[in-house]
Automatic annotation (TrEMBL):
Transmembrane intervals: none
Positions of the Aldehyde dehydrogenase domain: 17-466
Active site feature: E243
PROSITE patterns, per database record: ALDEHYDE_DEHYDR_CYS, ALDEHYDE_DEHYDR_GLU
PANTHER family in UniProt: ALDEHYDE DEHYDROGENASE-RELATED
Name of the protein described by the UniProt record: Aldehyde dehydrogenase family protein
Pfam families noted in UniProt: Aldedh (PF00171)
Family per record: Belongs to the aldehyde dehydrogenase family.
Keyword Hydrolase set for record: no
Keywords, in A-Z order: Oxidoreductase
Amino acid sequence: MEKYRILINGKSEDTASHQDVRNPATGEIVGQMPMATNDDLDRAVAAAGEAFKSWSRTSDDERKAACHAIAAKIEEHSEELARLITQEQGKPLNGLGSRFEAGGCVGWAHATAEFNLPVEVIQDDDQGRVEIHRKPLGVVGSITPWNWPMLIAVWHIVPAVRTGNTVVIKPSPYTPLSTIRLVELMNEVLPAGVVNVVTGPDSIGAAMSAHPGIAKMVFTGSIATGKKVMASASETLKRLTLELGGNDAGIVLPDADPKEIAEGLFWGAFINGGQTCGAMKRLYVHDSLYDEVCDVLKDLAEKMPMGNGLDEANVLGPIQNEMQFNKVVNYVEGARKAGARILTGGVKPEGPGYFYPITLVADIEDGSPLVDEEQFGPVLPIIRYSDVDAIVDVANNNPHGLGGSVWSKDVQRAKDLALQLECGSVWINKHGAIQPNAPFGGAKSSGIGVEFGEEGLKEYTHIQTVFC
């Protein structure tokens, strides 16, 4: 069984202890995660700080080339990385699974390489010249989750590198191995110390957000943990980008065609088995279409092959870990006991792994925990409504504000309603379709700051105004 190593200043290092990483589909050990200490973190931050002195002075062209080189290196090893993601995270190789994730890493890194933050001239006249320069911040601390372990790592690391920062990343202890391997590959094309990885217990993440040598924290995860990151980062006034999940609402208007929108609704909710921050978590359907939408979604759900992600035939995998599995089961059982109707699913199949079938829950209302809270699994509550004018207020009555969608043949009508949704991203007749050139971030409790595109690059810089 391979014992993985942390990587500091371009060198892989062993640790005194390790922790097993298991395949959620089988329970088998995939590899062993190195358990770093706070001393290891200090050394990683020191190495990143030293590397920042030279990396921050490299030219824009050098940084652009480095990001393209990262993309090329990921592409070269994409199948190896995809299989590692499947083994530790559970998602299938095919469909919107680990090969899709590895390909997304390649595309995102190439795209990010081409974004620019040129000097902005805001005055140039006989009174003088005033320029706005974007300067890198320093060492960026990154904490990533277990649902898209490598793609989110790329989202954190590549913009930091592109803007002249250096990085220390701590992946989730559930899925650390693909990130370790990713950083090893990055270090084949980057100077030592520019990107470092430490893995281990949650205490390492807490120490990162409080560390005086880290200038900015980027965190993707829960609201509760995001609040802790923000609180500890306040001691050193760190910059923050926090993406804290969502409880995205989809609204189906009465003129929609259930058959035309069925696949969009399904994958909007169940990409990665629903374990996606920007997935649809609650679906509001007009009374006139309710039964038909339930029927078409049920038909799709019962046709989708679920199983071990290493089987090429499967397009859905298990829930990643026991804690999340139990949370999903409890939400469904609570809804069932309260009188909701389980259209399909709702019963764990026999056999190993944290498998839970696609579960559609009808005859449920706001006020149920399954509707009000982020379930983060293969379950979708479908809520009936009759008043189109009032449904936006119902959808907005939630502390989350990451994404939302409206489904209708009348695109302008859908857009008018969509603009009333209190969320950072909104889609018409689709859901969760993010792209590298479009800013992505949350409103309300779903986060602070944005990722992607030039707006995302700016999050890794501070402004320096030059008066000439």
